[in-house]
Amino acid sequence: MQLLELPVELLDLICEALYDDDDECEARITRLNACSLLRVSLVSKTLRQIVRPWIFKEVRLQYPSHRANLLLRTLHALPSYGHYIQYLYLWNRQKQWSGSLDDLGFLFSVLNNLRELYAPLFPPGILRNVLKDFRSCSTLQYLCLDGSSYGVRDLFELLSFPCMSRFYLFSFDDTACCQDEPHQSIHAPLTELDLEQSQIGQPLFGHIMSRCSRLEQLRCLVPFPCAAERIADEWAVTWVGSSVLVPRPISMNFLSLQICEFKETLTELHVLTSRQTWTGHDGSKLDLREFVRLERLSASSSCFFMATNFENDRLGFHELLPPSLVNLDVVWGPESGIFFQVPTDGTSIEDQVRLFREREDGKMNNHNWIIDLALQKTSQLDRLRSIDFHESMLLPGRPGIFDLEDWQLPAPVAQEFISAHIDLRVSYRCSISLQ
Question: Strand pairing of 244-247 and 237-240?
């Protein structure tokens, strides 16, 4: 049987195999597959009609560019081709915008079947104006963009796309738009939300969480309280010292209450805390014990521990974890340590290095709280499979002083985790040299 004698359904499956719609495939492989599809389209008119949706399905475009002009020329002649484009990746490397807003607006006007828009490297002010006319799109499910020129209302309008399930926001700073209140009626049908690269304080974070109902994955950067802070605005802003604006702090009690609404849906949680002093820590802890589906947890140590209360704050750590947990990852910042308290009273870098060297000599016997995680395997954490505790190598202003070294587990610790079938890795700072 000749190729063209095959049923259309089989020919379409062949095109799908050539397209290789795999999230993990490299861009080079994607380009090779696109070339293969283009070659197939030259065989006959029948194959061209079958291949066409696969050729246009994913478009990676620098705008403006010669390639963008070719695409626009095609779409002006045949607007129906816009229906084939489901995944659009836009970027712009120019320091100053030189493209046509009319052409960009036209491009979005024919994208009536767009599923994903990835544009974190595209001028946010330009895209913001275009998306205002595009927000009625009923097919967009994934949006990733630079939010540095967006206000709070703009943000909630983006979240309100009727089919939006995954939203990734970079460089949004709510200290610049604290008076811009969101509409109360907007609902966000999200399952994945990534705010890890944005500055979002307590009030706005609460507004966002209250608009979501079924989050499954959440990534966020939590602003921690600072020393010498003064409330400058009830909406979002805190003054530090005399002139620096930071988002209004989020305590672990507040965070626990906000995300508790998703205790039956959340499967992944990633929480980082901003690099601020520990003096404002209120002692509250992230409580996740009621979550029934949470399997992956990655968090800063400040979500669970206080650097200034080392002796007691690790006791009962396992009680804060969900019984559904499979993977646990905790990172200790520059003002905290896994095995002992890092000085926060102005101790010199040289003295801190000396303390680390003492620890390298074997003074790491405060690990009972770690063993508790293995002991609780059968009664509370029966699904736990891996634990990764590690300390940050970076100290502000003094890079290169520390490296990471894996803790050689004492025999009793190793035996407990082997018996519990848990893979434990602990990496701590070790000094390189005094600089």
Answer: antiparallel
316: left (phi over 0), alpha (psi -120 to 50) or beta: left
Q: Under a CB-based contact definition with an 8 Å cutoff, are residues 306 and 367 in contact?
A: no
pLDDT tens digits, residue range 267-280? 999 998 875 545 56
CA distance 256 to 234: 21
Q: Within a 10 A sphere around the Cβ of 205, how many other Cβ atoms?
A: 23
Query: Whole-angstrom Cα distance, residue 14 to residue 10?
Result: 6
In what helix (H) or strand (E) does residue 329 lie, and over which residues does it extend? Answer: strand 327-332
CA atoms within 13 A on the CB side of 35: 6
pLDDT tens for 193-223 read: 999 888 888 888 988 998 888 899 999 988 7
Domain ranges of the chain: 1-56
Inter-residue contact 375 to 411 (CB < 8 Å): no
Strands 87-91 and 423-431: unpaired
Tokens 């992230």 belong to 286
Taking the model in full, what pTM does it have?
A: 0.82
